[in-house]
Amino acid sequence: MQFPIYLDYSSTSPCDPRVAAKMAECLTLEANFGNPASRSHKFGWKAEEAVENARKQVADLLNCDPREIVWTSGATESDNLAIKGAAHFYSKKGKHIVTSKIEHKAVLDSCRQLEREGFEVTYLDPDSKGIISPERVAAAIRPDTTLVSLMHVNNEIGVINDIEAIGKVTREHGVIFHVDAAQSTGKLPIDMETMQVDLMSLTAHKTYGPKGIGALFVRRKPRVRLEPQMHGGGHERGMRSGTLATHQIVGMGEAFHLAMLEMDADNARILKLRNRLLEGLQDMEEVYVNGDLDHRVAANLNISFNFVEGESLMMALRNLAVSSGSACTSASLEPSYVLRAIGLNDELAHSSLRMTIGRFTTEEEIDYAIEKVKEAVGKLRDLSPLWDMYKDGVDLSKIQWAAH
Amino acid sequence: MAYSEKVIDHYENPRNVGKMDDSDLNVGTGMVGAPACGDVMRLQIKVNADGVIEDAKFKTYGCGSAIASSSLLTEWVKGRSLDEATAIKNSDIAEELGLPPVKIHCSVLAEDAIKAAIADVKAKRGA
User: Fold this and answer.
1) Among the residues of A74-162, which ranges form H helices?
2) How far is CA B91 from CA A375, A390, B4, B49, in A?
3) Which pLDDT tens digit goes with each residue over A110-139?
4) Domain coordinates of chain A in residue numbers?
5) CB-based contact B57:B16 (threshold 8 Å)
6) How far away is chain B from the Cα of A334, in angstroms, using its nearest Cα?
7) Is B37 a catalytic residue?
8) What is the CATH class of A5-10+263-388?
9) Which residues on chain A place their C-beta less than 8 Å from a C-beta of chain B?
10) Which end of chain B has fewer CB atoms at under 10 Å, N or C?
């Protein structure tokens, strides 16, 4: 085994070696280095061909038309372009947007910016499992609503929203539906024929592609219009200017192509590992899975070890690369806003670990992780006054703590 | 975030972990912090007839810096008089452990804990 063991695939994934090999073919003089926008020579034509091939590979994973794919620098840019671009374009129709409290910061901050510009935003509460129901969306839509923005899969708890059902609601009301799918490509089937999604943010680096490249799906029928956020040479049909990064795009194309071919096998293997991890940890006392376990991508386990603080736990797990919802990891005093929004108390939010499994995780690594987590939780509980009190039968919720 | 060697040492080999009998009139207990804030410290001291702290124990729920701050403090207070222990400042702890600015509150909590423990034992003995 190589240490530390990487169990943070939802943060980013390594490039698949097959992806890296394709990218390397697009860099040097001897290789495909040209500007895809150069129309006057072979270097440009060859690069354009590679870019269009990648566009088709991305479109194939979504079952959409390649002309509906706009290259961006990643999901953050796609979210910005989708939300601000659509809100601004349709602002004469209305200035109300619907999103949720557990969206990625790229969505929440784009919405905050629109609020400063005079738009109104409704932030939906998820249920205690982390799911936004189509009924809640329907109830929030008003005559002046132009856009609904919701994530397909939550980055912290891995919980899946029913995009197909929500799409029916938004289409019925004539509202644009944007979906952040950064966490779902290669993990769930996505079909733009059956999902009535108008805009979908994509990124390469969570699906074994490179960082710094993403795309926005922009539906053609019915046509969705956007105000560009990046002005310049009019690339990508005017929606996103800037010279296309051939090597990045080719990497994303190959990564999504592999995802299409290998998704089922990957998921089956990863689910087995996740279940093994969960079973290994669940025989301890006071262990809670955060978010719905059934409507969740195979790769994600978000789990709280009561009476143990998350950062100290990660400190004990130096050979494991994981993340925590504890405030101490973010240098702010608030624990994870996602865990709070699904109703976790602060204690459990501070005690959470997110472990995310990927294509290169082995059974041996999972077994090692189980052993180390158990050891660390045991050690830290021996150190924890809260564990003492729990064992003595003290009801911690009845104590008057002095907040500081 | 990188931890200082001293923080790691205290975290990996915490000194004086444990619990004392709170009903003992010579034992002072200081429990500070809140689970909601991500740290709770329980610091206990045992004071002899001369007013000297002869033993100290702690348990801490919190990040590595909080654990290290309380562990260090138990080492420091042993053998000191109550007045000497009262004089320990959070900045001394922060400096000794090399705490970064975002972790200063851990040392503040440790200072609060020893002050609370001292107040507790004084109240008990006065009673």
Assistant:
1) 75-89, 105-116, 134-140
2) 33, 33, 16, 30
3) 999 999 999 999 999 999 999 999 999 999
4) 5-10+263-388, 17-259
5) yes
6) 8
7) yes
8) alpha beta
9) 307-309, 311-312, 315-316, 326-328, 331, 333, 335, 345-347, 350, 382-388, 396, 401-404
10) C
Residues A324-383 pLDDT 10s: 876 554 555 578 899 999 999 888 998 999 999 999 999 999 999 999 999 999 999 999
What's A17-259's CATH class? alpha beta
What is the rounded distance in angstroms from the CA atom of residue A359 to the CA atom of residue A357? Answer: 7
SS (HEC) of chain B: CCCCHHHHHHHHCCCCECCCCCCCCCEEEEEEEEHHHCEEEEEEEEECCCCEEEEEEEEEECCHHHHHHHHHHHHHHCCCEHHHHHCCCHHHHHHHHCCCHHHHHHHHHHHHHHHHHHHHHHHHHHC
Residue A403 has pLDDT above 80, yes or no: no
pTM above 0.90, yes or no: yes
CA distance A324 to chain B (A): 12
B77: tokens are 């207070």
* CB contact (8 A) between residue A403 and residue B36: yes
In contact, A261 and A359? CB cutoff 8 Å: no
Q: Which of B124, B126, B48 is nearest to B82 (CA)?
A: B48
Domains of chain B are: 5-122 (3.90.1010.10)
- Residues A177 and A148: beta-carbon distance below 8 Å: yes
Say what the ipTM of the complex is.
0.94
**Residue A396 distance to chain B (closest CA, Å):** 9
Q: Across the strands, what pairs with A304?
A: A288, A352
Q: Residues A281, A283, A285, A289: is their CA dihedral positive or negative?
A: positive
Give, in order, the Cα–Cα distances in Å from A285 to each of A276, A389, A391: 17, 14, 11
Task: Tell whether B116 is within 8 A of chain A (Cβ).
Answer: no
CA–CA separation, A337 vs A105, rounded Å? 10
Q: Give the chain A residue nearest B102 (alpha carbons).
A: A331
